[in-house]
Specification:
The chain has ten helices and no strands. The protein is mainly alpha-helical and 201 residues long.
Length: 201
């Protein structure tokens, strides 16, 4: 039977080199994460994802600015969180899902909308805008390309920069899910583990 032990132990910041310590300061300025931590009356901490990536300092230094850009970019905050939730579910990333379960609600999604993000695309009382976003994530996950009809619907809503950002958002969070799942990164102890909607009792 396969063990579920963490494969790369997250490194505490005191074991980082000087360059990574600068990225620690950037992580502390992640206002979205701070909102969750403040709501829980917790001090600002560096999440286990970053602490795991710290095993490869140059990779972390290259990836951190991309994550920062995507998390405060051109797409509306609510849309971005909906896309990340769907990506987390499609990639079965419990860490990603649990983190963004709270972040998405800060972005304006109701808890029911968060749960619906993990269910069948056409199910529930979703808006047409939410349906096309979820469908876009599914198409990119399944075939790495959007159909013409989905692209046309998205074009009516987003400009060129937002469209490119959407594609990169899905791809980046899919990559992050791969790292989280394969390294078995443990959920941060201050976070609540959330089951996927199809795993609820």
């Amino acid at each position: 039977m396969e063990t579920r032990e963490t494969r790369l132990v997250p490194l505490p910041p005191e074991q980082w080199d000087a360059a990574l310590r600068e990225h620690l300061e950037q992580a502390e300025r992640n206002t979205r994460l701070q909102e969750v931590q403040n709501a829980k009356h917790l001090p600002t901490v560096v999440i286990n994802l970053i602490r795991t990536l710290a095993h490869h300092p140059r990779l972390t230094e290259a990836l951190a600015p991309l994550l920062a850009l995507l998390n405060s970019g051109e797409l509306p905050y609510r849309d971005r969180e909906l896309v990340i939730l769907r990506t987390a579910v499609r990639n079965r990333s419990s860490y990603e899902w649990s983190h963004h379960y709270a972040l998405a609600q800060l972005a304006g999604l109701t808890e029911q909308e968060v749960l619906d993000a993990g269910r069948e695309t056409e199910a529930g009382e979703r808006s047409s805008e939410d349906k096309v976003l979820l469908r876009a994530v599914d198409e990119l996950h399944d075939r790495s390309v959007l159909t013409d009809s989905t692209w046309r619907e998205l074009e009516q809503r987003y400009d060129e920069r937002q469209l490119l950002e959407l594609l990169c958002l899905v791809g980046t969070y899919r990559m992050i899910a791969t790292v989280l799942n394969t390294c078995r990164v443990p959920l941060d102890e201050w976070q609540t583990e959330r089951p996927f909607p199809d795993e609820e009792a």
